[in-house]
Amino acid sequence: MMIPTNTFSQFNNYIPSKFSQTQIVKHHPPQNKEEKKGLKAAKNELFFALGIMAATASASALLIKRPQKIKNIIKYTSPENDTIIPTVVKNIEATSLGKKYLNSKESIFNFINKIDEPATNVKEFLLAITADKDKGFDFIKEITQDPRKSKNIVNTLIQKVGGKNNFTDWYYHPKGYAKAYSQFIGRFYNKSDSLDNLTKFTPSWSLYGVREKFGTLGSLPKEFGSKEKYQELIDLLRKNQSANSDFEYENLKIKYMNKGYSAKTVAKVSSEDKNYIVKFQQYLPSDEQSQEMYQMRSAADSIFTNAKVDSYLTQNNCKNSVKFYYYDPKTESSVYDFIKTTPSHEQINPMEANNYMPDMNALGVYMNDINLGNFSEDMTKVIDIGHASFKDILRPVFSERANNIPNASGFDFAEDMYAKQLREATK
Q1: Is 216 left (phi over 0), alpha (psi -120 to 50) or beta?
Q2: 353-363: buried (b, 16+ CB within 10 Å) or exposed (e) per residue?
Q3: How remote is the C-alpha of 134 from its chain's centroid?
Q4: Are 395 and 384 in contact (CB under 8 A)?
Q5: What pTM was estimated for this model as a whole?
Q6: Percentage of the chain lying above the pLDDT 90 cut
């Protein structure tokens, strides 16, 4: 659902006062046909999504999200009765903390983290920051540098602005975090020169959203030779998969491991001193540009969907994931490190399984697919990411450029896990 920014004024008039810009906007009846038309459109979108603005792909559009989403996640971080502090957008210099900040020479978050000021002043200052295009960019860049710090940063901001209600009010304000993030991500995308740069920041990019930068991910290990030789190998693997017999190619030994449940085949590829795992889609549409190919790549547990998540985890040095090396869009295949382990046979539920993967969770990734073959014997390494989810309040999902990582493996419990860990980060 895309809402032009010129509907802000209409939304502002009809948003429940709890979420209005200054908390003093009054409801008034529409005055003319044009306003009635705008109101009807606004109400349809507003009440369908319970009336709250969320992040989008560009500064020209907003996605409507339910306020309950963020509230559910942060509900344990502050008292239930924190009162909304009315806030008006000001220039940074005009805020009560503006001069102190400018004189401090500190980065924005460091300044906020160090000060001991009334929540009213902090919220006013934060709103001025996110309302400023350049300062908002600098602020978001600063607080998203290390995804492992995300939960602690969120908790700090919640406490500094006077509790979760004020945090949510600032986050979804028309000049708040969600809008600033949509502007940030547009600039970030335009500045990024590769898909690798994008997936290091977040795995939530949609295939359509990265279309201008779509291509390979990672680097092909030298043992595979040239890119063309690698593609020849994948073609052979795909042609011979029904026979399921081992063979040699150039200086590599090939052993089929298994066929997965998501139309993928897994093979072990060994050189003289190094072993890799290669995964590939069992069948490819004849037309690379077809809707069928688009749907296959975008599906849950596809080669590309897994590669996005695994690229993110590897580039952020995740301790609970197997190293990802390469994704090739021409053959819809990927290369991973091979680890010698016996797949786990322990029956365990997803919530318990994620307790074995604290570093993966710290990066915002949660496992939904608990097929026993997806984990090492000690449960500390994910052999196959399968169906996973990504949650990070500081890196929200925005329209066009990204979407929630598709999950077709049961209930998506990641929000509950994220909320639990966010609560524990306050202790």
Answers
A1: beta
A2: bbebbebbbbb
A3: 23
A4: no
A5: 0.80
A6: 53
